[in-house]
């Protein structure tokens, strides 16, 4: 896992189209804009250094009330089930913990594997957004993970 490389942006957009065809997949320009803003994006790579997954986090507030939001976590279907998504999420959360930020995300209400992953990492459902994903009209849960305390920092995630 490493910082997402600009040369991986076309592959990110390709995976978006494959993974999220009915939910307005991000084009290359959206990834470029996120990288240009300085958002925290990481990539997971196979042995041949090909991108097999990516994840992004943005800070929306800093300081004592730091807040971050997970923009995306995506894993090539051929690499799913091997812990890549979990590793990507843990890297995002480690970065959020550096700022002691609470973390928010949206997830499709029918995406049980992702919801389970998030729950195992201390996220809880705090709301629902009706017809959040477009054009499919799928609903999304808003989930939140509280900021890590000093005592929790030594615990394994």
UniProtKB/TrEMBL annotation:
Please tell me whether the keyword tRNA-binding is annotated for this protein.
no
* Annotated N-acetyltransferase domain residues: 1-148
Instruction: Enumerate the Gene3D superfamilies for this protein.
Output: 3.40.630.30
Any one GO molecular function term: protein-N-terminal-alanine acetyltransferase activity
The keyword Transferase is annotated on this UniProt entry:
yes
Report the transmembrane regions from the record: none
Keyword tags: Transferase
**PROSITE patterns xref list:** GNAT (PS51186)
Pfam families, per the entry = Acetyltransf_1
NCBIfam families from the UniProt entry: rimI
Q: What is this protein called?
A: Ribosomal-protein-alanine N-acetyltransferase
Task: Give the species this sequence originates from.
Answer: Actinopolyspora mortivallis
* Gene coding for it: rimI
């Amino acid at each position: 896992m490493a910082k997402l490389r600009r040369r991986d942006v076309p592959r990110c957009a390709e995976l978006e189209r494959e993974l999220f065809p009915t939910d307005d997949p991000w084009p290359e320009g959206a990834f470029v804009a996120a990288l240009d803003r300085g958002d925290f994006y990481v990539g997971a790579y196979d042995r041949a250094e090909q991108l097999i997954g990516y994840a992004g986090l943005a800070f929306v507030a800093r300081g004592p009330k730091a807040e971050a939001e997970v923009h995306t976590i995506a894993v090539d279907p051929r690499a799913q089930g091997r812990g890549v998504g979990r590793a990507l999420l843990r890297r995002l959360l480690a970065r959020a913990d550096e700022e002691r930020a609470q973390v928010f995300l949206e997830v499709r209400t029918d995406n049980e594997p992702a919801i389970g992953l998030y729950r195992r990492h201390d996220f809880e459902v705090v709301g629902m957004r009706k017809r959040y994903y477009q054009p499919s009209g799928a609903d999304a849960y808003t989930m939140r993970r509280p900021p890590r305390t000093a005592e929790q920092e030594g615990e394994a995630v």
